[in-house]
Amino acid sequence: MDCDFALLTPPAHVIAATMATSAGERNVPRGSLLRRSPAPCDGVAVEVLSTAGWYTVPNPAAPGDRGCVPAAALRPLGAEAFVALRDAPGLVAGELLAAAPTCEASTVRFDDRAVPLPSLAALRAITPESLARVESVRSTYTALFGPIGLHQTPWADEGYVGLPLPDVYDTARVEAEVAREGLDTPARREKVLVAAGPGYAHFWGADAAWSDIWARPETIIAVLRTAAGWAKACADAGGSEAQCRLQIGDLAWYDDVKPDPLGHKDHREGRCVDLRLFRTDGSAYEAWWNRPDDRSGAAAYDAVRTTAFLRWTAENVGITEGFFNDPAVLAAVPWLKPLAGHDDHVHVCLDADG
Ligand SMILES: [Zn+2]
């Protein structure tokens, strides 16, 4: 029988609907899978089946929550397939299930697969267009580094894909990083690394979790090519893995609202990335070209490696624009420009055709 499933459509904001539930107001992210019910309501009565993957919102709705959403926010399921974002009864993380499911009393059937209804909480719908974008990133990743699952290759609903994150740190790992790096104040703590891939790592900073990992697929591919090639070039020049690792902050924001909170306007184009400065000591912490480490008071910024990275990437991947303020690096890298605010990171826009 028909499942009465619907998706929350992609609006400008990641919070696609707010609904009153028995537990209070809850925010439902776009891309969430809902089931319509005939209950009377000022809009469409729905039950939340799954909330969309990498979108984190305050006060999130949970599977099982019931409420009422505006009819205009809903879209019936069409050609979307489904990705298992984690293991669940009847599901293995990363597997792709067919479009157009049908429903039985306590199971949902995707072609020849019957999945228990509660396991739907682990699924996220994906359009054929998004799947093609994700697969273009995934095939590059696989060629450079080896296999990666669909559940580790994020996608957004408006055409962007996310930085592949095969290693998302759990709480214990984050706490270990906090202890190892001596992140003893809230301001230091938010600088901790939260996830890693081969040759790169990601930190949230002051931004919401996973809100700034998005970009055009071709840009993510360029980031991966940079990570792979630079890791080798840097190691060949004597750098350790920790000294060579790219510490990635902002790509593009997951909302289409203006102004976005990621500094300057280039980021919303999905072509640019902010990277921490390289450090002499291999610590996973920010460095400044013009001030010492705020934990130790010692200088840790590596101007030589930061210069080498900019030159290597410009030559081997392609950089269309770059900002950083260290006069020594500016003198050595003619295309680089100074810009206010670029003392603790380099901003580079990658040539996706390079
Ligand atoms: Zn930037």
General description of the model:
The protein has 354 residues and is an alpha+beta fold. It folds into 2 domains: 5-126, no CATH class; 129-350, Muramoyl-pentapeptide Carboxypeptidase, domain 2, CATH 3.30.1380. It contains 7 helices and 22 strands. The chain has helices at residues 128-145, 171-181, 186-189, 217-236, 241-244, 303-316, 327-332, and strands at residues 5-8, 15-21, 24-29, 33-37, 44-50, 66-69, 74-76, 81-84, 96-97, 102-103, 107-110, 113-116, 123-126, 161-162, 167-168, 193-197, 200-203, 214-215, 246-248, 272-276, 319-323, 345-350. The strands form 7 sheets. It has a 5-stranded antiparallel sheet, with no helix packed on it. A 4-stranded mixed sheet has the order 15-16-17-19, covered by helices on one side. A hairpin with a 3-residue loop joins strand 10 (102-103) and strand 11. The relative contact order is 0.09. The mean pLDDT is 93.
